[in-house]
Design a protein that fits this description.
The chain is an all-alpha fold. Helix 3 packs parallel to helix 5. It is globular and about 60 Å long.
């Protein structure tokens, strides 16, 4: 398979994000009708939108745009969110759906998590491109190649979530 240029891969990632933004706008327009189901769908999609951004960016940056790169984006953001939420407030299960106070206001939390999803998607896509063809010893060969990437991404996301919760958030 021919490798694409980095600019083309980022362009594909941006097109995936554009499609998810258009679908978010469609759900928002449908929620304005006042039908309870449409309002619920919009609220649910709004909460998982950072995860969708992470999956979109990781799939776009991945050299073959496969489902494995989408899985890596999902694993990266979910592990990031888990480590972040446990360190910010141990009583909550998963803080990426709860408002936190950033920059002095409660309303900026969704933008913060979208930026975190974008960052985790970039990290997951880069890690996928680096480790998708790694060779392991024979007794660990099952975990080599594309199966190794979610493992290393989850470890990196754990440290990124810890760094953001302990260093970045207290200084905002």
């Amino acid at each position: 398979m021919k490798k694409e240029s980095l600019a083309k891969r980022y362009g594909i990632a941006l097109s995936y994000i554009a499609v998810s933004v258009v679908s978010l706008l469609i759900f928002w327009a449908l929620s304005l009708t006042g039908v309870g189901a449409f309002v619920g769908i919009f609220n649910a999609y709004k909460l998982i939108f950072p995860l969708v951004v992470s999956i979109s960016v990781a799939t776009g940056i991945g050299f073959d745009h496969s489902g494995a790169s989408a899985l890596v984006g999902a694993v990266g953001y979910l592990v990031f969110g888990s480590s972040f939420s446990v360190l910010v407030d141990p009583k909550t299960a998963f803080l990426v759906t709860s408002p936190i106070k950033l920059f002095g206001s409660v309303g900026s939390d969704q933008l913060f998590f979208i930026l975190c999803g974008l960052f985790m998607g970039i990290v997951a896509g880069v890690l996928y491109n680096k480790f998708y063809n790694i060779k392991m010893p024979e007794w660990l060969a099952f975990f080599g190649g594309r199966r190794f990437v979610p493992i290393v991404t989850s470890v990196v996301a754990l440290f990124i979530g810890s760094f953001i919760a302990n260093v970045v958030i207290p200084h905002l």
